[in-house]
Automatic annotation (TrEMBL):
Alphabetically ordered keywords of this record: Oxidoreductase
Molecular function GO terms recorded: FAD binding; oxidoreductase activity
Entry protein name: FAD-binding domain-containing protein
Keyword Ligase: no
Pfam family, one: FAD_binding_3
InterPro entries registered for this protein in UniProt: FAD-bd (IPR002938), FAD/NAD-bd_sf (IPR036188), PheA/TfdB_FAD_monoxygenase (IPR050631)
Domain spans labelled FAD-binding: 6-328
């Protein structure tokens, strides 16, 4: 079976859903292909930053988002000793409508976008539909081949195909778009534990103790946690066993002693191979990559979703008109998406690489228990300096607007 659509989007994550919604509202016929049957997957990015909250308002979705169960945090900090906190980024200093980060399960965020997009007659979302191959004709990408959960194969031809299928993008691989990899000395191990009303955990405020770096994200019913350690030691961590892993958590956070038994085995601890990379070119004729498919981000700062969303807004702004008129999109116009989004991407990745090198890795190696002393003195003496990281993380160098 072969069909045709103006724009085919691979992947129903934040970039894919926002792009699909914006193009559909602009009158472009668009189909999003998502290989899973739902959005319910653990340990995905759940931070919605001020720039994205502003975008939701512009799209008329602010009230719907506000109705979702979520928590809000305005400070990004590092502990100094046991009882002191150094604020690195203070979002309350931002002159925006929403000077905070909202923590909401990504599946709720994606469902909100999907429901809004389905209100548009030119939008289609196909779940349980996995893209298996790009269609190439006359030197350009002309659509995709896919397979459904029940084994049915088909073709969806498109004037433009957009890859929003993450850091392991099949479209990027088949188009032979190879990213430049930056060295990352860290990996993350994700887990979840029940939450108690007495917990004093703060989002984006890590726990550091004797060579340990642990990020605790409080949710409505549980704590999502990221255990940060040296890259390449997943086998060692698993070989030490669950008892040792539980003990290390309790040593760093004694208040978890009453619940670490809920981690039944190391199968409950999910390893994330942290990557930091960026494509030199984000397109081929007929194909565009955005979001993690164009630039994988570290989980530090939780900026991946928001950069992906802004990529989608920029792509929709530049491409909706040509797509609506028909006849395809020239490669030079696809290249403009990268040009528009490159500086914000470089700025955030540079900040993440600096934090890896100067702050987090020395803590993981046991060389320090907190940020370098010069940073501590700077932030103590000039607390307004916390505006700069807050702006880079919360808004970015080039916020996009609907």
């Amino acid at each position: 079976m072969s069909e045709h659509v103006t724009c085919a989007i691979i992947g129903g994550g934040p970039a894919g859903m926002v792009l699909g919604l914006l193009l559909a509202r602009a009158g472009v016929e668009v189909t999003v292909l998502e290989k899973h049957g739902d959005f319910l997957r653990d340990f995905r990015g759940d931070t919605v930053h001020p720039s994205t909250l502003q975008l939701l308002d512009e799209l008329g979705l602010g009230e719907r988002f506000a109705a979702l169960p979520h928590s809000r945090f305005s400070r990004i900090g590092f502990p100094i000793g046991r009882d002191d906190l150094l604020t690195i980024g203070d979002l309350s200093r931002l002159k925006v409508r929403h000077p905070y980060i909202a923590m909401v399960p990504q599946w709720d965020f994606l469902s909100l976008l999907a429901d809004a997009a389905k209100e548009e007659s030119s939008f289609s979302l196909r779940m349980n539909t996995e893209v298996t191959e790009l269609i190439r004709e006359s030197g350009r990408v002309a659509g995709v081949r896919y397979r459904t959960a029940d084994g049915q194969a088909g073709e969806l031809r498109a004037d433009l195909t957009v890859a929003c299928d993450g850091r392991w993008s099949i479209a990027r691989e088949q188009a032979r778009l190879t990213p430049k990899e930056f060295p990352v000395p860290l990996d993350a191990w994700w887990l979840r534990l029940p939450r108690s009303p007495q917990d004093r955990a703060g989002a984006l405020t890590p726990v550091t103790d004797k060579g340990r770096f642990i990020i605790v994200i409080p949710r409505e019913t549980h704590l999502q946690m990221a255990y940060i350690a040296k890259k390449g030691i997943d086998r060692q961590i698993r070989a030490r066993g669950i008892e040792r892993f539980r003990a290390e958590l309790v040593e760093a956070m004694p208040w978890l002693d009453d619940r670490v038994h809920e981690i039944e085995s190391m199968d409950d601890v999910k390893h994330l191979d942290v990557r930091l990379n960026r494509l030199r070119h984000w397109h081929r004729p007929g194909l565009l990559c955005i979001g993690d498919a164009a630039h994988a981000m570290s989980p530090i700062g939780g900026v991946g979703i928001n950069l992906a969303v802004q990529d989608a807004v920029a792509a929709a702004t530049l491409l909706a008109g040509p797509l609506r008129r028909g006849g395809g999109v020239p490669p030079a116009l696809l290249a403009r998406v990268r040009t528009r989004r490159l500086l914000p991407t470089i700025a955030v990745q540079t900040l993440q690489r600096t934090l890896h090198r100067m702050v987090i890795y020395p803590i993981v190696k046991g060389e320090r228990s907190g940020p370098p002393e010069p940073i501590v003195r700077l932030m103590r003496r000039f607390p307004k300096a916390s505006f700069v990281p807050a702006y880079l993380i919360g808004i970015g160098l080039r916020p996009e607007h609907a």
